[in-house]
């Protein structure tokens, strides 16, 4: 299905007005080539708020949203285990699809989603991850320009408060895709894969579960070997102790200045009683319409510290651009702002360009599947305490 | 051989007045419990300078230094391939020994040195590495206090200009122990081993050789698994591009403020013609009596960025102490200064305490051997592109 460039803006429907869907709704509305068309959401109160805010329909059933002819694409932001069902259903209704990361929790689910998109001739984009950030596109463009030579090793650190943000119970249950492996590592894996531009060959990883009251993976250290010979060391901690934004001018992940620092999330959480209170607080703090979810950030979004070592230069993200360290010394290159929100707006733009301009998306289903594969390999490597190759994973 | 506490200060002889020996000579002289006794050096001009400066004998032959009864211990700072011969000779003369890192280039050489020290009843300490830094002792003490719980993962980055400092030809030849694997990684490996306090079980690593005019390993990314289940990701680059001291307040490795920044070493080197010019420049810049080698630094020495994630806290080195990030937030703990030079002075103090007070050294021959073993495993892992366990290394 293609879309004519001078047709009406593409209409987008949100499936699931939780954290990701709630953030994305206004960004669709703001995007110059798109329009917000409606939403599907199981919670009646959230539906009412959405309709009061936007004047748009909010349906209890996904099928109702998919039957709406003003919906050209959907943003699937339901719990991970629903991604496959909702993406396949959308494809069968001829809707283009963005699926929030992780694409799914199994390779079989990924395959079903890819097959459904292909069979129905719709575009499939997996996001948002920080690999959509303008800084990552700028790094990739810099490498493609030939100035730096090919990337040879990436070093990535991100230390956050992830595990102490208010959670639903399944988000703390590894068996249901909770913890950092499926929710935070995909950012780093996508970024590394997009920059290195080669399939992952093997991983060697260790994970940590340090808090029995949050019994899922909260930390990971991984060595990632790419087929082209490049490698990445990937370190993540969500334990709200050291915060790597301390070394990035206290600019938060989204590009805002961070005022709530070390230990803040844990202190806030300690005031909430029980899983139900936590889920309620999660809705207040991160649900649709939550304060702080809107507004263009003063700086570029990022996902921790990263050094990209290439044959002839090192590259590192700055607050508003890139530092390039080469034989001439250090240099800073600004990032030119687009008219859409950096990061999440770029997810939308990647889909819009695919649908309207026929530009194949970088983050298609096959790309998204590769990141799920790597996350599974990391979990297996940590459990088996040995290197896991992607070929043995596929053969299992 | 033991030494009585109220005897004269221990006399130290330097074997090899190059970079390491030249730095160490005045630090021995300054140490309150030691006295500088003489040196052995093949270069006549350096011998003359040493004697003019210190009034002490400088011998052309190591045996002459070892025959001097005022020499109680020697600091072996000759080229790597001579470490075994000089350490064994010193032991046979009943002298205590400090061997500059790397201990040796083979496990057989390490074993011969350990055996000679044991057979002759002398102390053997392997250093200097940055694991002697007061900050590392403070981290270890903090962990031992029980406040943080056990270390679970270490993340280490060091980006320096190592490969572009003026070099002798063998320092750029991996077969003769050149490059970073035997000269820079031992700092990180020693630090990690001392903090984790468990043998290394396996490594998975990649190395880079990016400059054909400096044809040895200049970069490394490694995942290190320890027997107790902790792990470390170790990243090093000596390519004079990004400089990780940028994220440590521009404090240099030795604790001085750094004014020569990105690309400086490469620019200076480009003005020198050929290997002979480079070796001569090396002597001027880093040899015995070179400017900048002396003086107590304003801040603590360090070796790049390191996050020590423990069960209940993260720890990171600050300019003058440690940052401790735990459930209460972030806290900075100062490091109390000793009366000797931090780092290299601590090497001397470890030997002095072993000889005079009978305190077994942390950095004994067995410890030094473990780091050589790990460096060999890293080289093999990079070459074979797979995880290498220490047991298979020992079996080979």
From TrEMBL, chains A, B:
Residues 137-241 form the GFO/IDH/MocA-like oxidoreductase domain. It comes from the Bacteria. It holds the Pfam family GFO_IDH_MocA_C3. GO terms for molecular function: nucleotide binding. Residues 13-128 form the Gfo/Idh/MocA-like oxidoreductase N-terminal domain. Coiled coil: none annotated. InterPro entries: Gfo/Idh/MocA-like_OxRdtase_N, Gfo/Idh/MocA_Oxidoreductases, GFO_IDH_MocA-like_dom, NAD(P)-bd_dom_sf. This is Gfo/Idh/MocA family oxidoreductase. It comes from Sphingomonas tagetis.
